[in-house]
Amino acid sequence: MSLSLTVRLLPLSAVGSVILLVLAAAARAEDPVAVLVTGPLSATVGDRVAFEVELVNRSGRPLEKLRVVDYFDKGFHHEASASPIEQKGTIDLAAGTSRRLTLDFLLDEPGRQCHRVEILDQSHTFVGGATSCVQVAASPVAAATPLAAPLPTTPAPVNAYPSTTYPTMPATPPSTSPAPFVMAAPLATAPLAAATLTPPPVASPPLGMPPVAMPMPTAQPLAPPPALPASSGLPASTALPATPSLELDMVGPAEVLPGSVSEFVATVRNTGSVASGATTLEFGWDDAFTPLEASEGYKLASSRVSWDLPSLEPGGQLRRQINLRAQPAGAVTPSSRSCVRGVLSGAVGGVMVADESCVLIRSNTPRLRTPREAGLRVTLADCDDPVVVGHSTTLICTVVNTGAMSTGRLDLTVVLPERATLVGDPSPSRVRIDGANVSFDSIPSIPPGGQATMELAYRIPGSGTAKATAILTGTELDGSTDSNCQTTFLAP
C-alpha cells in the first residue's frame, strides 16, 4: 500500500493562520509503536490529499514483521481497493528507530471524512494506531462566495453560516476597493478632525489626497496622535480580531470486558477571550460498540451521534456523554482495541478540534485451541479385513487426550462408504443417522491422559474397497481432526 498526495487548503480565518490537526500526536503511552499522522484539516471534493505517517518504536526492543492497515470512510477513495487496505509487505523497526510512510487518497464526498492507521504485530495484536480527519467542502466556489462578498442581504446565504461569524466580516474591505484608498483613510482622519476645530473652516481633502497636502501646523496641538477608538472608523484590517480558542478532551475507560457498558465523556472548553459561537460536536465509534444512551439533544446516525452546541463564553465549558456496550471479542482474537473519536467543528475561522479515547476489550474466554494444540489424537481401524460380501466389519474409533487440559464436549461423526448398511447397534448406542453420516451424541469431556472409544459395524452389497472416515470436533476446539481406514470386500 503506497499513498502520497497534494491538497489545496481552504482559508481558515481572517488572521490567515492554518492549523493542521494531528490526531495521532497524542499516541497512548502503553502502545509499543507511536503513530503520528500529519495531513490537511480541510479540502474540496475531487482533491487528492496526502497523509504522512511516522512509526516510532519505543518498546525498547526490536519489532519485526509489523503490518500497516488503514481503515477509511467511504468519502475517501483509493485506487488499490476499498477500505481497509494493507501495505504490501511488512516493516522491521529496531529499538528507538522510526519509519515514514505516505498515504494518498482522492476525496469523493463532502463532510467530515476520517481514516485510521493501525499497526499489528506477527500475532495480529494491536501495537499502535492513530486517526486523522478532513473536513471536505462540496464546492470551492460555494465555500468561497460568502467570505468574498459583502454581508448577505438575502435569507439563504445568512442561514448557510452561523450568525456569530458576521461581526468580523465587515472588517475586511470589499474586494472592489483599491488598496491605496484603504490605507489613505486613516491618514485623512486626523486632519479632518482638526479642521472642524479651527475657526476658519477648511475644505475636506479628497480621500486619496497625498499626506503632504494635509494638516496645518496650527492644527496639530488640537489633534494629538493617540490611538483612535474603534468607533473612529479605523479599518479593522489594521488590527487582528480576537478569536475564540476551543479545546476538546475525550475521556473513557482504558479496559472493559465484552458485554459491559462504557461511558465516554467529551468536555469542550473556551480558553479564548471572545464567545465561541454555535458549534457542532460529533462522536464516531468502531464496530465493536453498540450505542445505548447519549446526552439530551443528540442526533443519531450510523455509528455516529452529534449535538448542536450553544455559544460558549470565555472560560466556559460543557460536557456531552455517550454510553456504549462492548461487543464480545472473536474466538481467534479474544482481545481487541477499539476507539471513540470526537470532532468539534463549525467554530469561527473554520478550525476543527478532535480527540479520541481507545479502550481494550479484553475477553475472559481463552482463545480456542486447535485439536493439535489441545493434544487430541483420533484413530479409526477395522477389525476384519478383507471381508466376504454379505458379512460385516467392525470399525473402532479411539480418541486420546495427550494434552494438559480437559477437552470439553466433543462430537464424532463417522462417514460410511456408499451403499453401506449399519449392522446391529453402535456403541454408545445414542447416534444420529443422516444418510451415510453416523453422529455420536455429545462425548463427555476427556481428562488429560484419558481416552474414549466408539464402535459400529457395517456391510456393503458388492465387492471392492470401501473407505470410512471419522471426523472429530468440539465446542472448545478451533477446527477439526480426522482419520480414515479402508476395508476390502471380496466376492463369495
Write structural notes for this entry.
The structure is a single chain. The strands form 6 sheets. Strands 2, 4, 6, 7, 9 and 10 form a 6-stranded mixed sheet that branches. The chain has a 6-stranded mixed sheet with strand order 12-20-19-14-17-16, with no helix packed on it. The chain has a 6-stranded mixed sheet with strand order 22-30-29-24-27-26, with no helix packed on it. Mean pLDDT is 75; it is low at 1-29, 142-223 and 228-238. It has 4 helices and 30 strands. A hairpin with a 7-residue loop joins strand 19 (335-345) and strand 20 (353-362). With 492 residues, it is mainly β. The protein has 3 domains: 1-147, Sandwich (Immunoglobulin-like), CATH 2.60.40.10; 243-367, Sandwich (Immunoglobulin-like), CATH 2.60.40; 371-490, Sandwich (Immunoglobulin-like), CATH 2.60.40.1530. The chain starts with 32 loop residues before the first strand and ends with a strand.
Which outline best applies?
A: elongated
Gap between N and C termini, in Å?
68 Å
Query: CATH class of the largest domain, anyone?
Result: Mainly Beta
Number of helices: 4
User: Which quaternary structure do these chains form?
Assistant: single chain
Q: For the CA atoms, what is the radius of gyration?
A: 37 Å
**β content, as a range?**
35-45%
State the fourth-level CATH superfamily of the largest domain.
Immunoglobulins
The overall pLDDT average reads 75
Q: Estimate the helix proportion, in percent.
A: under 10%
Identify the CATH architecture of the largest domain: Sandwich
Q: What is the fold-level CATH name, i.e. the topology of the largest domain?
A: Immunoglobulin-like
Q: Strand pairing plus helix content: what structural class? A: mainly beta
Count of strand segments: 30
Structural domain count: 3
Low-confidence stretches: 1-29, 142-223, 228-238
* Biggest sheet character: 6 strands, mixed
